[in-house]
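Lecture notes, unit on binding sites. The following record was shown on slide 14. It pairs a sequence with phosphoric acid mono(formamide)ester.
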Amino acid sequence: MSAALSMTEGNNLRHFLDIRDLDTRTLRQILDVSAGIKAMQKGRQRPLHPAAPLAGRTLGIILSKPSTRTRVSFEVGIRQLGGDAVVLTSAETQLGRGESVADTARVLSRFVDALVLRTGRTASLLELAQWSQVPVINGLTPDSHPVQILADILTFEEHRGPVKGRTFAWIGDGNNVATSLIEAATRFGFSLRLATPAAFAPKADIVAWARAQGGDIILTQDPKEAVSGADCILTDTWVSMSDEDAAERIALLEPYRVDASLMSLAAKDALFMHCLPAHIGEEVTAEVFESPASVVFDEAENRLHAQKGLMVWAMCGDDWQKYGQE
Ligand code: CP
Ligand code: NVA
C-alpha cells in the first residue's frame, strides 16, 4: 500500500481531538461511564476495575511539553483498568531529532492501542490523528485542552447537579482551556461569560462556531459583569506553556485576578475551579484558592476518572458503555 493510501483520515477511529468533534449524547455517555467507574472504585476501596476493560491494551503518551496531571491520570487510569502505558518525551524519541509525525504515527500504531499527545504545535496533533491507525487523544495543544474540561464538567455536576442551564464565568486569558470550555458550554447547554482583556479574547472562530450552534457565549472585558450571579468561576495561568510574552501578559491581566471581592459577586454557592498548576497571587488569591468554594483538588482527581471513561470509549468498541455499570 502506498504511503498516501495508508492515511487514516475519515476512518472510524474514536479520536478525541476537541470537545466540538463529539455530539452531546456521546460526551454525556463518556461522563456517565466515568462517574460509574469512579463510584465502583470508591465503593470497593481498591483501584482495579473488576472487568479490567483495558486488559492487554497499551496507551502511548507522547509529551512535548511538561505535565503532571495529564500524564499521571492517563498512566494510572489505564493501569487501574487493567492495561499499561508507555510515556515518551520528545527529547527521548526520534521525534526530538526530526523524525516526522507521520512516520512516528505509523510506527507507534503498530505497538500501542491509543495515543495521547501533548504538543506545542496543533498541526502535530492533526497530523498524528491523520496517520495513526489507533485513536488519538489531545492531551493539550496551544489551542485547546478538552480532557481537562471533561473533568471540570464531572466536578461541577458532582457538587451542584446538571450543568445544563447554569452560568459559568471564565476570568483572565482566553486560552486553550477557555476554548474547550466554550465548546463544552455549547454541547452541554450552559451559559458562559468570558472576561478577558481585548488582546487575549477567546478565538473568534470558536466563538462564532459556538454561537452558530446556539451556544450562549458572552464576551466582556469586565470581570465583575462576567461573575455576577454565576454558578462557577474558572481561571487559569496568565502565561501558558506556549506563551513567550510573559511580562506583557502579566501587566495586561493584572485586573483579572480572582479575589474574594470578585467571588462575592457570584451566586452564593458558586464554585471556584482552576485546571492547575496555579500561580497564587497572580490569577487567583490564596484566600479564594483555599476557600470552601474552591474544588480544585476534586477537579484534579477527576482527571483520573474522566480519563478512564474517555479511554474506555476510545478503545472498548461498541459495548463500551457497559463498563460504567457494576
Ligand atoms: N491541568 C493539567 O493539564 O495539568 P498538567 O499540565 O499537570 O498535565
Ligand atoms: N493554559 C495552560 C494549561 C496548563 C494545564 C497551558 O497551556 O500552559
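Take-home: The chain is about 40% helix and 15% strand.
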